[in-house]
Amino acid sequence: MRIVVAVDAGAELAAGLVGEGHDVLASVAASALALVAKDGMPGADAGRMLRTIADADAVVLEVNRETVTAAVVALCDRAGTRIVPLCDGLAEERLAAAFGLEQPHRRDAEPWRIAAAITAAPASARAPEARADPRVIVVWGPAGAPGRSTIAIELAVELARGGRHVGLVDADTHAPSIALSLGLADEGPGFAAACRQADFGALDARELSRVSVPLGRSGVDVLTGLNRPSRWPELTEARVAAALGVCREWADYTIVDVGASLERDEEIMSDLDGPRRNAATLAALRSADLVVAVAGADPVGVARFLRAHTELRATIGAVPIAVIANRLRPGALGIDARGQVRRTLDRFGGIGDVWFVPQDPRSADAALLAARPIAEIAPKSPLTLAVRRFVGEAVAAAPAPAARARGVRRGAA
User: What are the residue ranges spanned by the domains of the chain?
Assistant: First the structure.
């Protein structure tokens, strides 16, 4: 392959890549691409560099704030040239991820390892795995309480019908509410304990069963959220991703309730290696097989959803999204409320498929008073039937897995 090495003191790396059978077109300083991109290089030199980049199959680029910019990425995109990032630490890895670059490699990695990575197809170019049966389903919605937690609870209960084992995870680091809604004690270990065990490599199905709380006889096991907002640093990105990976083997379906904010605050923080409050939300979304995006079915809720939907899509890439318009009622939208929401989402967000959940305050209040799911308190509620329709059409159209005894499930290794 034809390669440009844009690495400071990269002569040894360039020689190693040549030894591995690659054709190194040029070995330049790490800042060379940034200079070309912002017209900071003399005309003749810039022209040669642009032609070299266009002829190359890949650019091995040392990542830092001076070398990786939007202009550099756009330059390589226009030339159809792949960027292979090299990083020294976590801050550089986060910078590479923020610009959508592929998995970075260590700056001091052996040339043969980098050569092998260049030869292999990048993850973004590989065919995505089929996700016909989503195992991890993340329920997200914009700020303004559109009903994320309610939808997450009802989805979990509905999926548990027919003998499925469902895990319900509260990963909201801003305002966790599942334990409060279901009358469960939030003083137990919960999801934070699962994340700590995952960090040590000690999390398995047996440990998840130990730290979870069964929701009656529904077949739903709940991993409760943080009982104090100040504990959010416990839910780091790596811990959450590892814990949800184990949840895939523990339950038939795992429903994850997350916070609204998708903000990446690295640019406004002086400590680039420090914890991030939204890391749990971002990690869960990236681990998802399906994202259920909840919009409030009123003018303010739809506007908030449309503004946040673009950021959601940029965060999760190719992960499928199923949109639910929650609390649909004619009073807030007038005649043909369903049609108005559908047309607005289609026109301004390009969202064609929408499922609607009607407002049912009487059933919702009764369930909140009893600290039980709406499906148990009012099984014939329009809300329950709408969630059942959504599950059948968007999540679990296939026959339910065979029922398993609860004692075996909670005692399994």
Answer: 2-125, 136-411
Choosing among 3.30.559.10, 3.40.190.170, 3.40.50.2300, 3.40.50.720, the CATH entry for 2-125 is 3.40.50.2300
pLDDT in tens, 170-205: 999 999 999 999 999 888 889 999 999 999 999 999
* CB distance 285 to 291 below 8 Å: yes
Which residues, including other chains, have CB under 8 Å from residue 30's CB and lie 6 or more apart? 6, 7, 8, 10, 61, 62, 64, 66, 67
- CB count within 10 Å of CB 29 equals 15
pLDDT in tens, 235-288: 999 999 999 999 999 999 999 999 999 987 655 555 555 678 899 999 999 999
Strand order, beta sheet including 321-328 = 213-214, 220-223, 166-170, 253-257, 136-140, 290-296, 321-328, 354-358
User: What's the CATH fold of domain 136-411?
Assistant: Rossmann fold (3.40.50)
Task: Give the burial class of 217: count Cβ atoms within 10 A of its Cβ; 0-12 exposed, 13-18 middle, 19 or more buried.
Answer: exposed
Residues 316 and 286 sit within 8 Å (Cβ to Cβ): yes
Stated pTM of the model: 0.67
Residue ranges of the chain with per-residue pLDDT less than 70: 40-43, 121-132, 265-274, 397-413
Kindly provide the b/e burial profile for residues 42-74, where b requires at least 16 CB atoms within 10 angstroms of the residue's own CB.
Answer: eeeebeebbebbeebebbbbbbbeebbeeebbe
